[in-house]
Amino acid sequence: MNKRDVVFPAGRQALYERNRYSPAIRSDGFLFVSGQVGSREDGSPEPELSAQVRRAFDNLNAILQAAGCTFDDVIDVTVFIVDPEANFDTIWNVLPDYWGSAPYPTLTGIGVTWLYGFQFEIKVIAKLPRTDASAA
C-alpha cells in the first residue's frame, strides 16, 4: 500500500495530529480535503456564525494553498449546516467573498444536528494543477 500524501497547512499540524486525521490527501491528480470548520488556532470555534464561516474558508484556503491550489481548483463541495433553516441566509451572504465566479463547483448541502460545537463545515475535492513533471 502506498503511503498517504498528506498536506498540512502551516501552523496547524499539531491540531490535526491531536484529533487524528489528515487535513488533506493528494491522490491521482486530486486533493481530498477533510471538513473544515471555523476553528481558531487552538481549535475552539469562532462564536459568531459569519465569522465562523469566514474562518472555515480561511482554514480551507490555507490547505488549498499548501497543496498549490486555490478555490478555483475546487470541483466538488459538501457543506454541513446546523439548523439550516435559521442559518442558511447568514452563511450564503458570506459565500460570494470566497466562492469566485461561474462556473461554480458542484454543491451538496446537508443539514445536521451537531458539529462538535460548530455551526458550519465545508469539505471539498480539488483538481491539482498540472506540473511540468506530471504533464510528461
UniProtKB/TrEMBL annotation:
User: Which InterPro entries does its entry note?
Assistant: RutC-like_sf, YjgF/YER057c/UK114, YjgH-like
Q: What superkingdom does the record give?
A: Bacteria
| One MF term in the entry's GO annotations | deaminase activity
The record, for Pfam families, names: Ribonuc_L-PSP
Question: What are the annotated GO cellular component locations?
Answer: cytosol
Q: Which SUPFAM superfamilies match?
A: YjgF-like
Q: Which CDD domains match?
A: YjgH_like (cd02198)
Question: What PANTHER family does the record tag this protein with?
Answer: 2-IMINOBUTANOATE/2-IMINOPROPANOATE DEAMINASE RIDA, RUTC FAMILY PROTEIN YJGH
The identity of this protein, by name, is: Bona fide RidA/YjgF/TdcF/RutC subgroup
State the organism of origin.
Lysobacter capsici AZ78
